[in-house]
Amino acid sequence: MSKRIIIADDHAVVRTGLQLILDETDDLAICGEACNGQELLSELEKNTYDLIILDISMPGKDALDVLKEIKSRWNNLPVVIFTMNSDEIYAMRMLRNGASAYINKETNPEQVITILRTVASGKKYFSPSQMDMLVELVNLPDKKPLSAHENLTDREFQILFMLVSGLKKSEIAEKLLISKHTVGNHRNNILKKLNLSTNSELTRYAIHHGIIQ
Q1: What does the domain layout of the chain look like in residue ranges?
Q2: Most confident of 40-54, 142-156, 166-180
Q3: Gap between the Cα atoms of 78 and 62, Å rounded
Q4: Which class is 3-135 in CATH?
Q5: DSSP conformation class of 4
Q6: Taking a C-beta distance cutoff of 8 angstroms, is the pair 86, 211 a contact?
Q7: What are the DSSP calls for 42-70, one per residue?
Q8: pLDDT in tens, 61-104
Q9: Helices 180-194 & 154-164 angle (0-180, nearest 10)
């Protein structure tokens, strides 16, 4: 029997592309689609699936918040993060919060199928660069202290990433369903924890530490 997959992505061309890729298999099938996180959660309440493919950038509810809610309500349901963002630091955040894999949309179709099969079998998938980061974290006490941004909360890291990606406070507030005042408070906490003063310094920090390219 084919594994039932639901894909949440706001781009129809991506959903169609994955459908065409998986049509070539007899053990994986896309049986549901959603255009945003809230639609995905509603669909999960109505139907049963074996695997979720979740885009990291969709309108409305942030992907990290969606992931956390999925894992709190359907803990055994594997989630594959599917994104154009190749940033491995963000990948570690998603993996630590329960994602089973974090893959780039430029990954070739054969590899995508292999990853989905790995995750559908109950295993996690880590790219070579993600494995290197995990090994480094395991050996960290013998090497160097954590970078300052590793001490940020998940919400602070979300807002850091959005700020250095060019989003305004009002846009962040709308996306995360919080007030601009709350965004401002988080920004101030981020700057304090990173010992920085301005958004320009924050952007330079993000580039230097590979949070953005």
Answers
A1: 3-135, 148-208
A2: 40-54
A3: 18
A4: alpha beta
A5: E
A6: no
A7: HHHHHS--SEEEEES--SSS-HHHHHHHH
A8: 888 889 999 999 999 999 999 887 666 667 888 888 999 999 88
A9: 90
